[in-house]
Amino acid sequence: xxxxxxxxxxxxxxxxxxxxxxxxxxxxxxxxxxxxxxxxxxxxxxxxxxxxxxxxxxxxxxxxxxxxxxxxxxxxxxxxxxxxxxxxxxxxxxxxxxxxxxxxxxxxxxxxxxxxxxxxxxxxxxxxxxxxxxxxxxxxxxxxxxxxxxxxxxxxxxxxxxxxxxxxxxxxxxxxxxxxxxxxxxxxxxxxxxxxxxxxxxxxxxxxxxxxxxxxxxxxxxxxxxxxxxxxxxxxxxxxxxxxxxxxxxxxxxxxxxxxxxxxxxxxxxxxxxxxxxxxxxxxxxxxx
Amino acid sequence: xxxxxxxxxxxxxxxxxxxxxxxxxxxxxxxxxxxxxxxxxxxxxxxxxxxxxxxxxxxxxxxxxxxxxxxxxxxxxxxxxxxxxxxxxxxxxxxxxxxxxxxxxxxxxxxxxxxxxxxxxxxxxxxxxxxxxxxxxxxxxxxxxxxxxxxxxxxxxxxxxxxxxxxxxxxxxxxxxxxxxxxxxxxxxxxxxxxxxxxxxxxxxxxxxxxxxxxxxxxxxxxxxxxxxxxxxxxxxxxxxxxxxxxxxxxxxxxxxxxxxxxxxxxxxxxxxxxxxxxxxxxxxxxxxxxxxxxxxxxxxxxxxxxxxxxxxxxxxxxxxxxxxxxxxxxxxxxx
Lengths: 289, 336
Prior knowledge:
Chain A is of the alpha/beta class. Chain A has helices at 15-25, 43-50, 60-69, 81-91, 131-146, 165-169, 171-186, 221-230, 232-235, 273-287, and strands at 6-11, 30-36, 54-56, 74-77, 98-101, 109-110, 125-127, 149-159, 191-198, 206-214, 242-244, 249-251, 254-261. Chain B is built from 14 helices and 10 strands. Chain B has an 8-stranded parallel barrel, surrounded by 5 helices. In chain B, strands 1-10 form a two-stranded parallel sheet.
């Protein structure tokens, strides 16, 4: 453990908040101070008590108190896109606190640790976008560095059990934010994001398909396969269970790349790679500071 | 002899579900002509847009020839008296990109749709539509994926969303008439809500199921000209309307006009009557979205495998609607 661990508070005790808490509880150089939920019987709150952390149970009403009780460097907002604005209004009064936004709110600045440099001069509100964008951004970045992309479509399929109530209310924000980010990383403005919630039992692993058209029509699927295998380490940097499904293939004039992401099974079983994509990105960001 | 007719509404999905049969290449001209002629026949509500509903145009499902907006405007102009209805699946369609512009273009009723286990994903868009002063129904897709009890639980979840109608969608085409009767009766026993029924003809039972739905008390039955719709298609409008008439259901549709409309649609509008082959039966047996049959056919040809094997292998993957990417991957896996 380093001398100056990053001090973090978690706002939200749903699927992602609880998974984050579990990851932080064993991460070096990160000191989780508190978690805020809305019910004292929520899984995240109970776990935090076992870990000896401070817990609060009155949702947004607890935030000011928690920030007053604890001096933290970062607040992880794991609530919902529509609550994020209220969170920012409260954090405004605590000048030293930076926010890592796990919701798809339009307010936060999109950030992918593998691709972006952290720059907080413009905003103290950094967003992890969405599981679809966060997991695909390194791949999209790799493609757009090598080729001009004319059109891009991202289709994420998630297990129903891994999609909590906040996400279900935030599907629109999820789509907008994901499209905004993939447009940025692909340097292409013809983009579309689609999210499919699949209830299969046993649950499906998080699966993502990327359809894209390249300006250069001489590029082959073999060339793309080679490019990807050469950079696999970069693509898997903090998504260790990123696994390609089949080879690069085509549909009409579009290429298709499909991958699975499984998680380490902390709060939800391994099918819920969508949680790990975000929580691992957060750990990686805070450990790099 | 009883000469009292029971009113029933036939809701025309030709220009939405039928767009699947046209590979989403429906033109504003076709939509305009069809909507005008259909309204002359007495059709009172017309659904319009990409086959997967607003925002469905995609590499994944198929790109539209005309935008949803162009299609809506064409119908509005050609048939000002009909109710213009849009099918909306959250996560294909969003409020800002799709629902707001559709309202501006003339849609007055939205069927906000979700897979039969994910009804809570529709709340946000339903409440937006109602707040905007438009009508909203909840469309429950792929209902053959759940038990009647689960269906009732999902409708219970939606009962405080403010909707006055649910649409039961047999998106697979796997229901048999006795299922339809027991589902509709169970809903009526538990909820005071209007029910619409949407059939697919994969087992040749679209007519029988639609009839059973009407007899069981559904107020609205979906149909399309020539049965034009995804996979094996929907209930044919030109067959349903006369049959209803004989059974003393009053749909308000002029029978000789609707027969002429069917012929005109085939010869002049180049609408396509779907076929029910072995693959359409196999997708029903595999409980797959009816619209997957052309996707399976193309993937099977691509990877040189038997389309029936692809359909059966998809069964194991428990795909819902909108997972065309994975159908391709299933065929690829089989080819190894």
